[in-house]
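To illustrate the input format used throughout this study, we show a single complete record. The first block contains the structure-token representation of the backbone; no residue identities are included at this stage. The design step must infer an amino acid for every position from geometry alone.
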């Protein structure tokens, strides 16, 4: 019999050596779980083993001293095992219920809020930002820190109608995902082309193929091979900028922030939904993004007051209707909310055909 192929390096590493031994022992054999209080989950296994998970928020971009502090808390107040979630939370596992409260106190005392479970506002899922990516139009981590400072009370308490998931995306095209409230960069002007660099840096056919609306053509500019953009077609998506940095689209004034609401991946109670744009053209106002914070807090406060128990943002909007959403939140409904763009019928990369 042929030998099994060993795992390749780029795959997900085996997590077992890093898991709490009680979790390894009871893997796949949990009977039930519940939620004793904000930030704490309790699991009970068929064997009778119990485990409490305590979730704390972090600022995500952490220096080594902060990580050491979190590790010291794990050694002193938990059982030496932690994991990080995709939303930049750290979770500690303990098998003795008496350890839960001292652990929570140690986390709060060191500035790490405990919460983000059940019907709270979860930590914001966010994209890499300037630290790891070369195309951001804003610093996603900064928006997250500023917003979560504002939403601290909603993170540590479970007072929302249902779970509220937030996300940020620092460009319009790549990472990020569906969220109850999504904060997304919005370019409002076509890219400016540095024609001196295009021939040296960009593979022109791949840039032309990249444009979802076929707005880019090869062109000779000042005798050099370059590109040109049909600005009437361009939807300012920024997809040409990653493969061709001389097509600069980030702009301190014209790169804005937009807010979208009502997306969800979950199919509990209702089907998954795409979020929809509700506020456009907010200033990309570093380092605290106050205008973005105001809109997010406004939407959250109306949702909190008006939604029925266990209605997700999308379910609430479905019930009250989009006119009701704009009336209740007081957000202006403008022409930019209407998708009247027809060009996609001929040009949008919406087919499953392979393109070259
Ligand atoms: S959202 Fe865009 S800019 Fe931000 S990390 Fe992802 S690919 Fe990079
Ligand atoms: S910004 Fe988007 S739509 Fe405009 S030229 Fe670039 S890829 Fe095409």
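Output of the design step:
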């Amino acid at each position: 019999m042929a030998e099994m192929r060993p795992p390749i390096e780029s795959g997900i590493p085996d997590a077992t050596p890093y898991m709490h031994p009680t979790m390894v022992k009871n893997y796949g054999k949990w009977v039930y779980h519940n939620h004793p209080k904000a930030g704490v989950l309790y699991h009970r296994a068929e064997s009778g083993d119990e485990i409490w998970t305590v979730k704390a928020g972090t600022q995500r971009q952490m220096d080594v001293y902060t990580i050491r502090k979190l590790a010291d808390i794990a050694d002193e107040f938990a059982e030496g095992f932690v994991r990080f979630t995709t939303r930049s939370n750290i979770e500690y596992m303990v098998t003795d219920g008496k350890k839960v409260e001292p652990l929570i106190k140690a986390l709060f005392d060191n500035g790490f809020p405990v919460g983000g479970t059940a019907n709270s506002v979860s930590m914001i899922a966010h994209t890499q930002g300037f630290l790891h990516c070369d195309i951001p139009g804003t610093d996603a981590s900064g928006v997250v820190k500023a917003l979560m400072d504002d939403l601290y009370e909603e993170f540590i308490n479970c007072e929302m109608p249902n779970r509220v998931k937030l996300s940020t995306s620092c460009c319009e095209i790549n990472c990020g995902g569906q969220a109850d409230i999504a904060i997304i960069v919005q370019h409002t002007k076509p890219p400016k082309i540095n024609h001196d660099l295009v021939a040296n840096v960009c593979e022109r056919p791949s840039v032309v193929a990249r444009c979802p609306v076929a707005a880019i053509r090869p062109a000779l500019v000042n005798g050099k091979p370059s590109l040109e953009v049909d600005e009437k077609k361009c939807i300012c998506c920024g997809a040409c900028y990653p493969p061709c940095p001389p097509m600069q689209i980030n702009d301190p004034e014209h790169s804005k922030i937009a807010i979208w609401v009502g997306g969800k991946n979950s199919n509990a109670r209702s089907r998954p939904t795409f979020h929809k744009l509700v506020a456009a053209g907010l200033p990309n106002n570093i380092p605290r993004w106050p205008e973005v914070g105001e809109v997010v807090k406004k939407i959250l406060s109306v949702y909190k007051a008006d939604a029925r128990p266990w209605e997700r943002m999308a379910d609430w909007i479905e019930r009250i209707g989009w006119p009701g959403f704009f009336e209740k939140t007081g957000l202006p409904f403008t022409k930019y909310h209407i998708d009247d763009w027809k060009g996609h019928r001929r040009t949008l990369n919406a087919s499953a055909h392979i393109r070259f």
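Structural context for interpreting the output: Residues 290-306 form the longest helix (17 residues). The CA atoms of residues 138 and 170 lie 5 Å apart.
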